[in-house]
Write a structure and sequence with these properties.
The structure holds 2 protein chains of 2 kinds. By secondary structure, chain A is mainly alpha-helical. Helix content of chain A is 76%, strand content 0%. Chain A has 3 helices and no strands. In chain A, helix 1 packs antiparallel against helix 3. Chain B is mainly alpha-helical. In chain B, strands 1-2 form a two-stranded antiparallel ribbon. In chain B, strands 3-4 form a two-stranded antiparallel sheet. The longest helix of chain B is centred in the middle third of the chain and has 27 residues. Chain B is extended, with a radius of gyration of 22 Å. Classes of the chains: A mainly alpha, B mainly alpha. At the A-B interface, helix 1, helix 2 and helix 3 of A face helix 5 and helix 7 of B.
Chain lengths: 68, 237
C-alpha cells in the first residue's frame, strides 16, 4: 500500500544523521569547514521531502505529516 | 524480528504510543505519526471535554503539565521540547541553535553577522514560546506528535511542493555563498524580485480558483485556543 512512503519516512532521520556525520568528518579530518558545508543538510532534507511527496502521490494517500 | 515468523505479513511500522509491531493493514496514520488501533488520537472529541460547569473550574485532562515551567525550560536549548516529550524536536532545536551559533563565531560569516545574530536570538525565544504553546496543547488534552509546529505548512497532494523546493533552493544559495561561487550579497540586492514573485504566485492561485495559502491564517476562525507559535516569535524580537 504505502510501503515506499513509510520507508522513505523512516530513512529520513538516519540519512540526515549520516550526512551530518560525513560533514563533521570532513570538518575534522579534511580542511572542509562545517560552517561552509552545512547547507548540504538543507538540500538533503529537501530532496527527501520531494521523494516522500512523489511516493505519497504514487500511493494515492493523503499527506498529513507536519513536515509536509 | 521474531514476529515475522508469527505474522504472515511483514512488519512495516511500530506504534508510537505502545511500540506494537504493525503490518500494512493495521497501520493508522495520524498527524504524520504511526499509531496502532488503540492509541489512534481522536482530535474532534476534544472540544466537548472543554465545556464544563463554571463552578467546578476547567476540566483539564492533563493537570500535571505546566506551561510556565515549559517556557522556563524552553530557555535551555532543547530542554523545553524534551519536557513535552518531543525528543526528536529537542534534538532538532539544539542542532539548529548550535549551527547558528557556530556560524556566528566563524570567521567567514562576514557581513551577514547581524542577520545570523538576530536569527540566534529569535530562535532562542522561539524555543521557549514553542514549548509553552505545546505544553498548553498538552494541558488541554490534545495529542502532540514528535514534530508538532516545527513547520506549519499543511501539505496537500497535488499542490506545488513549496517546502521541499524552498529547502533545496535555500541550501543551494547558502552553499554557493559559502564556497565563494556566488556571494549572497549579489543575490540579496535583487530582493524586490521576491515581492513580484509572491504577487504572481497569489495571482496564479486566485485565478486558478485555489485557496491562496497566504490568506488562510486570516480566514481561520478565532476558535482555536492556542495561537500558532510561529506568529508569536516576531513580536518578541
Amino acid at each position: 500500500m504505502n510501503n515506499n512512503f513509510l520507508l522513505l519516512r523512516a530513512l529520513r532521520g538516519p540519512l540526515m544523521l549520516i550526512t551530518l556525520g560525513a560533514l563533521a568528518s570532513l570538518h575534522r579530518f579534511q580542511d572542509v569547514s562545517l560552517t561552509k558545508t552545512w547547507p548540504v543538510l538543507l538540500i538533503v532534507l529537501g530532496v527527501m521531502k520531494l521523494l516522500e511527496r512523489s511516493a505519497a502521490q504514487a500511493d494515492d494517500r493523503p499527506l498529513s505529516g507536519p513536515l509536509g | 524480528m521474531t514476529t515475522e515468523s508469527e505474522n504472515p505479513k511483514p512488519v512495516t511500522a511500530y506504534c508510537r504510543a505502545c511500540g506494537k509491531p504493525l503490518t500494512e493493514d493495521t497501520v493508522r496514520m495520524a498527524m504524520g505519526t504511526v499509531y496502532c488501533d488503540q492509541h489512534l488520537p481522536q482530535a474532534p472529541e476534544q472540544p466537548q471535554a472543554a465545556t464544563s460547569s463554571p463552578y467546578t473550574g476547567p476540566n483539564l485532562p492533563n493537570p500535571g503539565v505546566s506551561p510556565g515551567l515549559a517556557f522556563l525550560l524552553g530557555l535551555i536549548p532543547g530542554v523545553g521540547a524534551i519536557y513535552n516529550g518531543q525528543y526528536a524536536k529537542g534534538l532538532v532545536h539544539v542542532l539548529i541553535l548550535g549551527m547558528l551559533i557556530s556560524i556566528n563565531s566563524s570567521d567567514n560569516v562576514g557581513e551577514l553577522g547581524p542577520l545570523f545574530g538576530l536569527l540566534t536570538a529569535v530562535f532562542w525565544f522561539y524555543m521557549a514560546f514553542e514549548a509553552y504553546h505545546t505544553a498548553r496543547k498538552r494541558l488541554a488534552g490534545e495529542v502532540v506528535d514528535e514534530f508538532s509546529s516545527l513547520v506549519q505548512i499543511k501539505p496537500e497532494a497535488g499542490r506545488f511542493p513549496v517546502l521541499p523546493v524552498a529547502l533545496i533552493s535555500l541550501g543551494v544559495v547558502f552553499l554557493l555563498n559559502n564556497l565563494g561561487v556566488l556571494r549572497l550579497r549579489m543575490i540579496l540586492q535583487f530582493w524586490p524580485v521576491v515581492l513580484i514573485l509572491a504577487g504572481a504566485w497569489m495571482l496564479y492561485n486566485r485565478l486558478t480558483g485555489e485557496r491562496a495559502p497566504l490568506t488562510a491564517p486570516l480566514a481561520a476562525p478565532p476558535a482555536a485556543p492556542v495561537a500558532v507559535p510561529e506568529q508569536e516569535v516576531p513580536r518578541e524580537q
